[in-house]
């Protein structure tokens, strides 16, 4: 069991990103082997309302399935922004996310949030590791997120790339016009101020012609569209595919079976930005 280190407040993400930028000049060699913990986290209702507006959720006293992810996010960055961390934070690519919720979470419930990293493992396109975030209420684990991140490099063709979540037979459910400031709006509410999401100038520094939407915004927007039809206890898994350049017009396509809700967020050309599925827990 990894050693637990308790924090009495949320890490300052602006400070951490500055530290991460400096630490790219110094190659570390130590993989974090501890868990960061915050106890008695109370959700700010105003912040929750702003998150809901940005992602398309309705205003209720229940936390959206994706909301605890941004509560845990500063702890994950704290682990990866240390000078000893061996991978450059700016070069990591978020390729998958799986969230499991075991019951509905009420905004007034204090949360204990835990975050740790798994050891790197081979991938056909380089190496991957998972950020594992968990939320507890009164000692009961009620929520978990596993975010898989890729460091591109020499890969292993025999390594497991993860199950393909693409599904046939999806039908048009909605058309969204995604505004050019979506990345900045989500960055403000999530704290994820990666330059690729903010504006054309900073996105071009990393090879993108325009800013791109956060993958977790795209997941949240799709789940918000399905929220009234999903069970309280479920697992929602997505695979991030083609970057969503802003602004954009995209399609949500869905299919319901006895086993799952399958969905995709697709460009007009038909290529997918996100493949996903939701199954009962």
Summarize the amount of helix as a percent range.
Answer: 10-25%
Q: Quick one: overall form?
A: globular
| Strand percent estimate | 25-35%
What is the CATH superfamily label of the largest domain? Hotdog Thioesterase
User: What is the end-to-end distance?
Assistant: 25 Å
Total strands: the figure is: 12
Low-confidence stretches: none
CATH class of the largest domain: Alpha Beta
Helix/strand/pairing class, anyone?
Answer: alpha+beta
The major beta sheet can be summarized as: 12 strands, mixed
Query: What Rg is obtained from the alpha carbons, in whole angstroms?
Result: 18 Å
The averaged pLDDT comes out at: 93
Tally of separate domains: 2
User: Do you know the CATH topology of the largest domain?
Assistant: Thiol Ester Dehydrase, Chain A
Helices, by number, come to: 6
Instruction: Please give the CATH architecture of the largest domain.
Output: Roll
